[in-house]
Design a protein that fits this description.
about 270 residues, mainly alpha
Amino acid sequence: MKIKQTILLLAFPFFLAACDRDRIPNICEDTPQFCVDLHADSWCKFERTALIRARKQQATLPSAMHDYDLLNKLQTYHNCLDPLLTIEYTRKKERKNDKVEAVYHAKEAINQLAIDTQGSDHPQLLLWHWQHKGSQQAKARFIKLADRAEMQDPELQNALAELLLLRDSAAAEQALHNALSLYNKGDSLNPDIIANLLTLYIRQQRYQDAWIWTRVLSKLDYQENIELSRLDTYAQFSAGEQQQLQQDVERILEQLARGTYSAPSHITKPKV
């Protein structure tokens, strides 16, 4: 037998053991604290499983990112169970009762974790406190992080732009183009970034830019209907102008596909 095959065979039981330890029944048996205060039946099974894993991850490797993930998993679990409380169970009343308890404990855990993380300067946590708690302080601190390395993420840049659209359109535009430049080849692009660009360009009556990015957005997986003819009510372009603009559309689409997009040269990075 080859040496590599022998090593793989020797290692295989350890891989199996690791997988077994990561199974939800084993997690609950070995570390029951991660599985308390949860409902018992098959409703919201995936949300419950994700919450258990998030609890374990946060306890094993405490970090701001894991706190943020746990907050999201708690919220998702809570939101999945909450509508079920209106269902009347005719056979087993306890099925509803344990969901009531689970929703209550999930809400309590969210509130406690929100208190524990309200002083964090982690951008995702600051954004969570603004979006879910309406914290103006968290919003201001998030905006101040604009130039920090940890903000170089498409979703964070898009969120930054949405906060800046009304107060500083130049900074918002820079953030949106920066968000697009942060995607690598093969990444799934969030079309809301381009939709926000369109909102900005139409508001500023920059109809050439709006024409280009409307066509770019129409080629992406965007759920809302895009009426390409609507721009004709604002501005009309000749066939020659449209041909030139279409070349920009193709260039942008190619750059986005390759993960090589960069902001237009006329866009300078403003101070936020």
